[in-house]
Amino acid sequence: MLSKAGLIPDTIIEGRAVTDMHDDLSGRDPSQSTIARLIEWSVNNQLIVLVLAATLAITGWLAVRNTPLDAIPDLTDTQIIIRTDFPGQSPQIVEDLVTYPLSTNLLGLPRTKDVRGASMFGTSFVYVIFEDDVDLYWARSRVVEALSRLGNQLPAGATPRIGPDATGVGWVYQYVLVDKTGTRDLAELRSLQDWFLKLELAGVEGVSEVASVGGFEREYQVLIDPNRLRAFDVPITKISAAVKAASGEVGGRVLEQGETEYVIRSSGYVQNTEDLKQIVIYADNGTPVTLGDVARIIEGPALRRGIVELNGEGETVAGVVIMRDGENALEVAERVKEKLAVLQRGLPEGVEIQTVYDRAPLIEGAVSYLEHKLVEEGIAVALVTLLFLLHVRAAFVSIITLPLGVLGAFLIMSAQGVTANIMSLGGIAIAIGAMVDASIVMVENASRRLSDLPDDTPQSHRRRVILQAAKEVGPGVFFSLLIITVSFLPVFALTGESYRLFSPLAFTKTYAMAFAAILSVTLVPVLMLWLLRGRIAPEERN
User: Disulfide-capable partner of 435 in 17, 155, 400, 516 (CB 3.0 to 4.6 Å)?
Assistant: First the structure.
């Protein structure tokens, strides 16, 4: 005998409801589809489903806490920069003797997309650009191997160096040194930066390089008098050789006397300008000709190619902190600020560290804005669902797919290495409105069926009604969500900067929708059995 309105038979044959209302056009019972069997399996194994849902929630929450944060995706290519200093040479000489040999040797590296060179006065830059999916450290090792094979192809004095293991968006923090007393010059501030702050910050976790900018680097300068050179008949090459040989240490041997050993060595490191003045160039009939006889030795600034100015108030010295590839930009910036707060106590009185660029507020602002929007969207969806269902527990069943779907998306993001930025969180914002569609349809269909049952209907029969209602619409809503899930697949066909910009959005939107589709046919039927209890108002009253 059929229950009210002829919805569900009261009798069960072989554990399966007998109905002729759900046959599709092909004559096949949709309850026998794969999705329907998955729904039935979930209902029969409720403990497993709930444990898996709890595991997803816990691991997803841990992934949210460990996912690197950044303002925007990293749009840069996988590239290695080789810098070679060739002092005093013109750009054409640098191009012919340094840039060209380096470029031709690096062209044959595996998975190389492009090699570009730039030559300027005294310096050569070579950029090796690899394919998009190449690991940065694998690329660096290939470049180092290629440089080791160059041998003597480069001129003496030209030693290539590869850049830091960072990307184009690794600039996370910058600070300046300001002397409030006005008693210290730029050379002293640069010395504090190079020999104190830079060395200490290099040990901070996640920092790849600390670049010093501005100020003056101190050096000993030998100002030769050409008239004296001519008077003493001394060529410049002799002076250069004498200066190079003067500053150093020469090892001797061990001399044993009695039971005591004496280490014999010659120490000749230059300590000040007076030491340089005493360097002997040659001796004429026992009379030495020193460097001080033919030149004036002073301590002065090295040549520089740029300056740093703060707020139009004058020059200063700055430090640029570069983050290592793959690190959490927000955490690196916070660690740098903590370290600088400690180093401030070691600076001379009156010298202060001022922040001029900090990416942390930008990251926090971008992520916080989208977090608020996600919360607002979730509340709006919850209110609309509650308004139309007029059943708190039924609304909870529909809304539960929102946080679990988002946590599942973060779980895959963390494993894949996708950072939480304005694009990846935007993908979740796009998906959040459609994630509850399937669960709302299932809950509404079950509520409509339950509302037609008498108040004294046995609980076992209500369970069968809920299961049949879920199996009736489950396959349709699952595949409708699946269609929405794959709607962003064309984004993955993009290449270059377009792919790096939009792929985080497509990834997170696809992951969130996929988890919502799976949860709608596994967890939602189980929760409907537990929460759709009591009197359900007919839909006409809603």
Answer: 516
